[in-house]
């Protein structure tokens, strides 16, 4: 029987108008955008769009004022890659005013108009005049991101792989072990190419867990970002299984691993172009680069143990990540090493309540099973494919890759887990 539980917290249910649209969009490239808005109803969603992780590389500035303000502004300033202008003018008046804007714009700049008239003649005239897109207000944040992505992202480009970032609420909670086993499960269950990136360059354990000793790994990419492309990446990958590759950490202390916020961005972007799934094994530290990496991941999984320090750290992480990723669902949570004999634990319900997030799964303490797998450099599914813990990891693989929806079974799932924990203790 699986130890899987399902979330039903209201914040987890997709209420964002943005969610279905945004999940299909590729990140917007490094471009400059300036918006000129007449109303707060338009400026607010544009500002929210600038905070979305898919817009992380773009630089967006919002000005109040419509076409006339934009014309005055560009009398003395260079035009950006994209200009977004709101205009409440009637169709013929709008077309006339845009001719003034055209006189001060660089020919390479794209222009998006947000108007208040749903008029076919107006749309045709704007397209004939070279406007990139006309959007009728009211607009949502998702509308803005979608319009920008449709203009600047090549529709024929290869799809981008899904990134799943694993982070422990404390050191030693088993986040890396779960990340590695989940990556193996995804590659095995779905016959999909998966890359594991061990980002703990000083103390990473992925090479040990997969019984690998590659001569090169992620350090070479991070310290030589100018060399990174698909060919160079292929030389750095160690083959762990038929469809599972590893960007191994050196796990040595012969240098200090201090990085800037964008240190891992290039290798992550390149890897996502080559594999459908990228599992990021992130060390338990809080720095500029970990914050940036988490902010841009498609999915975040926090691993915690059921004690007070883990609860505090988990709440801090969830609250911070919600602010960093306002248009995404909260991180997923896995409780690990539950049911240790004679150890006082916070109950699953008490752990979940202050977080507003119910754990996806509670994985019981089984030192022999995990220890044997680690000492032999094998995954749990290779040791015993029928073990209930392996079943739980397989269920998680389905959910985290989007192959199975999170269902509303909170009471049954929690009570079932609690009952199993009581029996175990």
What report would you give on this structure?
This protein is α/β, with parallel strands linked by helices and 425 residues long. It folds into 2 domains: 27-152, Rossmann fold; 158-424, 3-Layer(aba) Sandwich (Rossmann fold). The protein is built from 18 helices and 13 strands. The protein has helices at residues 19-22, 40-51, 67-73, 91-104, 120-128, 141-152, 175-189, 206-209, 218-223, 230-236, 265-272, 288-296, 308-324, 348-352, 367-375, 380-383, 388-400, 410-424; strands at residues 32-37, 59-64, 82-87, 110-115, 133-136, 162-168, 194-198, 238-241, 244-247, 277-282, 299-304, 332-338, 361-364. An 8-stranded mixed β-sheet has the order 8-9-7-10-6-11-12-13, sandwiched between helices. The protein has a 5-stranded parallel β-sheet with strand order 2-1-3-4-5, sandwiched between helices. Strand 12 (332-338), helix 14 and strand 13 form a beta-alpha-beta unit. It is elongated and about 75 Å long.
């Amino acid at each position: 029987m699986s130890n899987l539980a399902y979330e039903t917290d209201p914040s987890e249910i997709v209420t964002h108008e943005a969610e279905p649209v945004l999940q299909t969009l590729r990140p917007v490239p490094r471009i400059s955008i300036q918006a000129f808005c007449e109303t707060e109803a338009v400026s607010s969603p544009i500002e929210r769009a600038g905070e979305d992780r898919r817009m992380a590389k773009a630089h967006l500035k919002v000005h109040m004022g419509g076409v006339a303000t934009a014309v005055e502004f560009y009398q003395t300033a260079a035009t950006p890659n994209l200009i977004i202008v709101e205009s409440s003018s009637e169709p013929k008046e709008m077309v006339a005013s845009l001719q003034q804007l055209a006189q001060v714009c660089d020919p390479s700049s794209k222009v998006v108009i947000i108007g208040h008239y749903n008029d076919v003649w107006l749309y045709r005239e704007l397209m004939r005049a070279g406007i990139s897109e006309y959007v009728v207000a009211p607009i949502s944040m998702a509308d803005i991101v979608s319009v920008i992505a449709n203009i600047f992202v090549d529709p024929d480009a290869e799809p981008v792989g899904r990134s799943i970032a694993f982070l422990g609420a404390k050191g030693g909670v088993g986040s890396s072990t779960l990340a590695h086993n989940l990556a193996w499960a995804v590659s095995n269950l779905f016959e999909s190419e998966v890359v594991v990136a061990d980002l703990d360059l000083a103390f990473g354990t992925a090479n040990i867990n997969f019984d690998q000793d590659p001569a090169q790994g992620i350090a070479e990419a991070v310290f030589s970002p100018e060399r990174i492309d698909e060919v160079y990446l292929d030389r750095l990958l160690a083959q762990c299984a038929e469809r599972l590759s590893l960007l191994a950490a050196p796990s040595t202390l012969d240098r200090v691993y201090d990085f800037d916020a964008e240190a891992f961005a290039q290798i992550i972007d390149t890897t996502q172009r080559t594999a459908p799934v990228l599992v990021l094994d992130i060390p338990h530290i809080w720095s500029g680069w970990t914050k940036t990496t988490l902010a841009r991941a498609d999915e975040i999984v926090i691993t915690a143990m059921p004690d007070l320090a883990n609860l505090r750290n988990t709440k801090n992480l969830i609250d911070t990540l919600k602010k960093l990723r306002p248009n995404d669902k909260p991180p997923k949570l896995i409780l690990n090493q539950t049911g240790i004999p004679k150890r006082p634990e916070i109950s699953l319900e008490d752990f979940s309540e202050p977080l507003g997030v119910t754990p996806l799964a509670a994985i019981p303490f089984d030192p022999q099973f995990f220890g044997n797998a680690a000492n032999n450099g094998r995954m749990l599914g290779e040791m015993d494919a029928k073990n209930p813990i392996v079943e739980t990891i397989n269920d998680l693989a389905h959910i985290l890759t989007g192959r199975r929806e999170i269902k509303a079974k909170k009471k049954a799932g929690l009570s079932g887990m609690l009952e199993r924990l009581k029996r175990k203790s």
